[in-house]
């Protein structure tokens, strides 16, 4: 149903790749932009034939492009791609895209119809905004870990990264809205 949608994907690990995986599964053309070293999950455990099962499962159905965004030519290449996509999604810490020269202020001028989704652990501003956030961090900050495990035992994380997955689903809802 989304075969008309083109997505430029700057996400990594779980929440962002979950969102872009769902978009790809619904038919969107997702172009994943990675550093020349590749996303960190390419080296996750359970590597077989040089491929991480985690990376493959989270990035199936996407095209991948290695670009060095610390070089002018890499940024120019991504800007040319951004001019022709419908959605840009990233889950860096706040202001990373701006530091790379790829912030909303730049990309929206190249492509006024662009939808940009930024996933962060603690929002774009505030005392914790510059800190990375993952599911376990959110569970601890929210007090959720104090509600799991034995009543007289230490706080425990739940086994599945529900917060990161639901963040990805919420990102899809926001993008499609």
How far apart are the first and last residues' alpha carbons, in Å? 14 Å
Rg, rounded, reads: 17 Å
What's the tally of helices?
7
Encode the helix/strand succession as letters: EHEEEHEHEHHEHH
Q: Helicity range of the residues?
A: 25-40%
Mean pLDDT: 94
Q: Low-confidence parts lasting 5 or more residues at pLDDT below 50?
A: none
Shape: globular
Account of the 3D structure:
The protein is α/β, with parallel strands linked by helices and about 180 residues long. The chain contains seven helices and seven strands; from the N terminus they run βαβββαβαβααβαα. The longest helix has 15 residues. The chain is globular and about 55 Å long. The two termini are about 15 Å apart.
In short:
The chain is an alpha/beta fold.
Set out the fold topology.
Elements: E1 6-10, H1 15-25, E2 29-34, E3 47-48, E4 51-52, H2 53-59, E5 63-66, H3 72-82, E6 87-90, H4 96-99, H5 104-110, E7 115-118, H6 135-142, H7 162-176
Parallel strand pairs: 1-2, 1-6, 2-5, 6-7
Antiparallel strand pairs: 3-4
Please supply descriptive tags for the structure shown above.
7 strands; 36% helix; 7 helices; 177 residues; alpha/beta; two-stranded antiparallel sheet; five-stranded parallel sheet; globular
């Amino acid at each position: 149903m989304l075969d008309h949608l083109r997505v430029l994907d700057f996400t990594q690990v779980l929440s962002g790749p979950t969102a872009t995986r769902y978009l790809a599964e619904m038919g969107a053309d997702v172009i994943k932009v990675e550093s020349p070293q590749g996303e960190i999950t390419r080296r996750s455990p359970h590597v077989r034939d040089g491929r991480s099962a985690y990376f493959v499962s989270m990035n199936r159905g996407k095209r991948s492009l290695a670009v060095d965004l610390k070089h002018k030519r890499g940024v120019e290449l991504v800007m040319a791609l951004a001019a022709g996509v419908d959605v840009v999604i990233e889950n860096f810490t706040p202001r990373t895209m701006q530091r790379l020269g790829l912030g909303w202020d730049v990309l929206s001028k190249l492509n006024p119809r662009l939808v940009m989704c930024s996933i962060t652990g603690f929002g774009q501003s505030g005392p914790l905004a510059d800190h990375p956030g993952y599911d376990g961090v959110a569970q601890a900050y929210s007090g959720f870990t104090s509600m799991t495990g034995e009543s007289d035992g230490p706080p425990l994380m739940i086994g599945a990264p529900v917060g990161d997955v639901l963040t990805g689903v919420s990102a899809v809802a926001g993008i499609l809205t």
